[in-house]
Amino acid sequence: MRTPDRTRHPLLWVPTGYFTMALGYVMLTSVTAIMFKNIGMDNARAAAYSSMLIFAYTAKPLFAPIVEMYRTKKFFVLCMQVLIAVGFAGAGLAMSMPHWMVLMLALFVLMSFIGATQDIASDGVYVTSLDTRTQALYCGVQSLSWNVGPIVASGFLVYLSGRLHTEVFHHDPKVFGPDWMDAWRVIFFIVAAIVIVMAAWHARVMPDGARAENTPTNLRGAGYILWDSFVTFFQKRDVWKMIAFAFLFRVSIGMLEKIGPFFMVDSAAKGGLGLSNEQLGIIYGTWGLIAVLVGSLLGGMFVAKRGLKRTLFILCCAVNIPNLTFLAMAIALPSDAWTIAAGVIIEKFFFGFGSVGYMIYLMQQLAPGKYTTTHYAFGTGLMGLCMLVTGMVSGVLQEYLGYVSYFVAVMIATIPSFLATWFAPFHHDDGMGADSGVKAAAAANDPNVNHHAA
Prior knowledge:
Elements: H1 10-38, H2 43-52, H3 55-58, H4 60-69, H5 73-94, H6 100-129, H7 132-137, H8 139-168, H9 181-205, H10 219-234, H11 239-248, H12 251-257, H13 259-265, H14 277-306, H15 308-320, H16 324-332, H17 337-366, H18 372-401, H19 403-412, H20 414-422, H21 436-444
Helix pairs in contact: 1-2, 1-6, 1-8, 1-9, 2-18, 4-6, 5-6, 5-9, 8-9, 8-14, 11-17, 11-18, 11-20, 12-18, 12-19, 14-15, 14-17, 14-21, 15-17, 15-20, 16-17, 16-19, 17-18, 17-21, 18-19
């Protein structure tokens, strides 16, 4: 059993470690979409460019064994955080250079792989530095800290971009174009400063992390483990039904992830609600995310009480049916901020409530076997792939259909989710065993539940 280093108490590095992970992830995969929209990019390109940055996080199970082989996990965490800080500062500087868009996109793609590597190493420090009891004890701290990242990035920093644009640089908030680069340059420098401070802090307080059991010692060993994990994964009973569930459950959410914020800030002439960045940051990036967290906690309690098999289809309804709020807002075009906030809160609350069932299903039905951790990562990778694919096509589809017809298409896209959920197989404990409460609580606290909430 591992004994925690008393000179490096988990409260010194777990909150800051997971906050830093989330800040980088959300800035790259969600906030960049708002930035692209602000500087005048059309919805198709803004959605596609920000969505492609999800790929590295989806593919990280493929290179995780290699990261585990060299140096210490803390070494990788510190190196990646320094590189992320340099990358955001570089993106800010690139905005004043010729061909700045090409340079910035190249930096973002590179930073997505660096961020995914940071995630692998940070999770490794947590798992190998703390014993099982301590891991469970700090699970809630870990999740809460991760979710502060989206609130800071999608909430405060988006809000601040709007304030800088109008009050510091004195530009028109209703006009999208190059003038927005002044505000976003400052935002990128702020993120770089935060991450470099976190790296300096972690250099002092983060433990090195231990080598996990069965860690490969060479590339051949890593390749064998990865191949064997693939083979055993596809040998699972009804694996294609489980793959269909893992990929299709969040199709409608993937279609809303980028377009939802675009709808909020687009003008009424384009069928949007005409919110400012300040309003978007408060409504979508703050109240919406808080609603996700509350929904996740209550969803975990609901599953723990009734079991997953009895509740999975109900949870699917919770994720998909409230998407009607976006269709209703696209038709009514409300101007009252409280009405808009209510629509967002309803959709996000039920998304959080229902998504818990998705993560528990991956834990209980898809993951068990020889490589439980790796197969769970495959499941979350399929979720990421869904968000990548839907994000890439969402902007093009929305521009072709317009917002009202697009949100009708989102509701049609819920049909595969219902079918995949209805036919999802149960070959293991359905959640009513003695450890059901633990699994439901773990899913409610799993950062993956809220990775795409913003």
